[in-house]
């Protein structure tokens, strides 16, 4: 997209020529477009649960609803408010990372320890679905210089997805490995997988393969975009490989220090 500004050059009120300035606004245009899309997405994501909450509140307020049904409706209201809370939390995290690019609180961390903590905190979910979680943690004790909270969040989002998008009784293999560059963290599942055509867009904010399924599983559509942002702030790399119906592998590489 090109924007052209034109101005005449006058000497003694005589037009002597014209100056044209061409700006390539493709990038700017794309950014504006993305921003607009993002705001539209946020509004939609917030309005959907709000509409549900309002309709159940109205039903409870203006009708005689028996105890069994009112409990059911209240539970739906609870689920929807939880969803909104998660969404607002994720949005705040993203916007904080957008605005403070150098906001990392780096400290030497034992990456295996971070992974173990996350696996522990998700063990109830994994057990509920009867998954077999296999931990393959490297014995190396080398520390990585990372922002502990953010890396924990990153691992949480990836492992949580593996649990969510794998049908009951799945196998989730979580590994760490160290080489001269840094640490490699891999989460492999044998779940529903991702269609090839969706893979290139999977790290975009609010992009989901199946909106209904993601909603049902309590997703916000922001998990992987948060992963990508955290990894990039650490000057690392993330990739996702997947085969529909077979499973997914997410691989994150982080350097020992983001400055190295
Ligand atoms: P969500 O909150 O919807 O889970 P994410 O950003 O974490 O959002 O993931 C985006 C989409 O990528 C999901 O909606 C899902 O379609 C797909 N996805 C992510 N991880 C996996 C996985 N391990 N297996 C299958 N699909 C996945």
UniProtKB/TrEMBL annotation:
Cellular location(s): Cell membrane
Domain Histidine kinase, chain residue ranges per copy: 41-258
Name of the protein in question: histidine kinase
Organism: Caldanaerobacter subterraneus subsp. tengcongensis (strain DSM 15242 / JCM 11007 / NBRC 100824 / MB4) (Thermoanaerobacter tengcongensis)
Biological classification of the source: Bacteria, Bacillati, Bacillota, Clostridia, Thermoanaerobacterales
Gene: BaeS12
Interval of the full protein contained in this chain: 318 to 577 of 577
């Amino acid at each position: 997209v090109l924007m052209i500004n034109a101005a005449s050059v006058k000497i003694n009120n005589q037009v002597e020529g014209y100056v044209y300035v061409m700006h390539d606004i493709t990038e700017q245009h794309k950014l504006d477009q993305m921003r607009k899309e993002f705001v539209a997405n946020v509004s939609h994501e917030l309005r959907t649960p709000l509409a549900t909450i309002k309709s159940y509140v109205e039903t409870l307020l203006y009708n005689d609803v028996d105890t069994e049904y009112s409990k059911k409706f209240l539970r739906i209201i609870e689920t929807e408010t939880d969803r909104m809370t998660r969404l607002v939390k994720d949005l705040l995290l993203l916007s904080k990372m957008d605005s403070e690019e150098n906001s990392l609180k780096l400290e030497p961390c034992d990456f295996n320890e971070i992974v173990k903590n996350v696996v522990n905190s998700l063990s109830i979910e994994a057990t509920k679905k009867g998954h077999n979680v296999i931990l393959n943690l490297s014995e190396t004790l080398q520390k990585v210089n990372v922002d502990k909270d953010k890396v924990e969040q990153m691992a949480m989002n990836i492992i949580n997805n593996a649990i969510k998008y794998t049908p009951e009784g799945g196998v989730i293999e979580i590994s760490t490995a160290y080489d001269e560059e840094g640490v490699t963290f891999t989460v492999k599942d044998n779940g529903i997988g991702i269609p090839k055509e969706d893979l290139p867009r999977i790290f975009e904010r609010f992009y989901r393969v199946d909106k209904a399924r993601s909603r049902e599983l309590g997703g916000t559509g922001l998990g992987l975009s948060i992963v990508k942002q955290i990894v990039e702030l650490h000057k690392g790399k993330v990739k996702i490989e997947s085969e529909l119906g077979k499973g997914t592998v997410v691989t994150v590489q982080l350097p020992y220090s983001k400055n190295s």
